Amino acid sequence: MQLATWNVNSLNVRLPQVLDWLTAHPVDVLALQELKLSDDKFPLQAFTDIGYQAQWFGQKTYNGVALLSKSPAEDVVRNIPGFADEQSRVLCGTFDGVRVIGAYFPNGQEPGSDKFAYKMRWLDALREWLRAELVAHPQLVLMGDYNITFDDADVWDPVGLRETIHCTTEERNHLQALIGLGLTDSVRLFPQPEKNYSWWDYRDFAFRRNRGMRIDHILISEALKARATACEVDKLPRKNERPSDHAPVVLTLD
DNA sequence: ATGACCGACACAGTCGGA
């Protein structure tokens, strides 16, 4: 079984690339973030044409998430139960017995801002929901654009970006609290290239210079950790014309 | 230091992204 996550930065623009990628990498579940389209604009037919089913939770202009899958989704949940949210950020379903949560974590913009405070509240709510979800579903994966780096190894310029957004101690403590629930960063289970990032700024030739951050993650429960055989970032789509600024991350399970 | 680049919305310039 293979699972993947990809922030596509507009599904309108990136649909051909998503279709190409899925054809070349027929994963069982692909979580998408930043659809930037309303539900009535979701291109369902394009995915059914290549053998995929879909769940989607869109929003005009901003946010929006989807789960594309070979098998049908069961027990679908939209956003974090009990956390009132105008923004479409979380989509959850069970696929072949695996509880899959696709999430687009808030950006936070700048420490001290209202958006940062929302990010912290959102992270609190996510953690408390996950705590219960893990009891009900031992085989669980949380994947998406976390907008948080684990540590300086995830940052191209840790000195220059010290305590800036995605790199603050407060955000990293929240990420460690998810680890504290019994989740594991699947990328770091396996040997990786040096400076292994998942996002690069569009500006200043950042991809060519590998000036990036690893902010897209796949966290897995103990039961899934026992099944994990590989996890890697696929940088190839970032080399396309009109690429997303994020690259897909792919997890392989036995 | 600032802006760079991109997408949406709208059709200019602003906002949000990260």
From TrEMBL:
Keyword set, alphabetical order: Hydrolase, Magnesium, Manganese, Metal-binding
This protein's record includes keyword Transit peptide: no
Site entry (Important for catalytic activity), positions: D216
InterPro entries cross-referenced by the UniProt entry: AP_endonuc_1, AP_endonuclease_F1_CS, Endo/exonu/phosph_ase_sf, Endo/exonuclease/phosphatase, ExoIII-like
EC number: 3.1.11.2
Site positions (Transition state stabilizer): N147
Record: active site: Y104, D145, H246
Protein origin, superkingdom: Bacteria
Cofactor dependency: Mg(2+); Mn(2+)
Name of a matching Pfam family: Exo_endo_phos
Residues annotated as binding Mg(2+): N7, E34, D145, N147, D245, H246
Similarity comment text for this entry: Belongs to the DNA repair enzymes AP/ExoA family.
Entry protein name: Exodeoxyribonuclease III
